[in-house]
Amino acid sequence: MANQKGFWRVAVGIGILVGVAAVVLLLQPSGQMSNFQKWQYSSSEKAAAPATLQVKFFGVSTLLFDDGKTQVLIDGFFSRPSIAQVLFTKTQSQPQVIQHIVQQHQLQRTQAIFVTHSHYDHALDIAELGKQLPNSKIIGSRSTLNIARGGQVSEQQLLLVQPLRPMMFGQFRVTAIPSQHTPPTAVNNDLGEEITQPLQLPAHFSAFKEGHSFDYLIEHSGQRILVKASTGAVPDQLKNLKVDTLFLGIAQLSRQSEQFQQNYLDQTLRSLQPKVVVPVHWDNFFQPIDQPLEFLPYLADNTEQSLKILIRAAEQQRTRLVLLSQPVSYPLDPALQSDR
Ligand SMILES: [Zn+2]
């Protein structure tokens, strides 16, 4: 009897150890940035004149476009709560983090915040941004606007997205294009569901319903840029479009079937024929904004694989791939991009 008890104690102990080891492994970054140095942009490469169109990447698909006069933000996610906070507590925007970002990157010139969809890793901070930037407009789905309303953002700042109707902000012409989210997983199986009431924070991450997804076409000084945050495409939606720069979501690309991967690249990269493709939504968004971006943990994706799939496809058509790994100004002027 005593022996049997001892056996079970050892067995349970081993079981717990194996479980802990598995969790630790799953939380490790799925590859190293240092293996992709060849594609990484470093800010010292070229100093762009301040008046040229530039972009800064803040992880996931938060992108700040700036022409020296006007800024346009795609998505608003800077608070980046830890995985423990997301899973075990309610998520919250961090006003001090936003304040710091606003000062550091002079976001007072932001005229518009376009939101790709309403999951928290795209929209958590839009209400706080709206309050700290009272001259900005927030443009998104009904769900997105309800996140802003939950934070008491003035109704005059909110604009319901109008698909395929261009909007002007300074020299920026921005068009929302209906899109498709990354195939759902157990934790975000809410595609098409909406946030029907103002969403007050803190809120559980699952309260941030997708509420439909949008790509954004940005036209500025003769250039065309498409931001596609999610790894999904509406068939033939982009077939008549060509762009200079493509910001392409690759989250979980490696986890999809070969057929899905090829179809996704056909509908986006191969059809849009950009000069430059910049992968987005590859970083571990449970890490704070003041740390260098690292790959998603194995739990979420094999980022090294996802990147390699994109690199291979880009090389085949001579599109240059640029990996942005920190929020430094990247010039979108084709003349500055052409050599390095
Ligand atoms: Zn999402």
UniProtKB/TrEMBL annotation:
Gene3D superfamilies assigned to the protein according to its UniProt record, in alphabetical order: Ribonuclease Z/Hydroxyacylglutathione hydrolase-like (3.60.15.10)
Record-linked SUPFAM superfamilies: Metallo-hydrolase/oxidoreductase
Organism: Acinetobacter kookii
InterPro entries, alphabetized: Metallo-B-lactamas, RibonucZ/Hydroxyglut_hydro, UPF0173_UPF0282_UlaG_hydrolase
SMART domains xrefs: Lactamase_B
Pfam families recorded: Lactamase_B_2
Residues in Metallo-beta-lactamase domain copies: 59-281
Alphabetic keyword roster: Membrane, Transmembrane, Transmembrane helix
Stretches that traverse the bilayer: 6-27
Name by which UniProt lists this protein: L-ascorbate metabolism protein UlaG, beta-lactamase superfamily
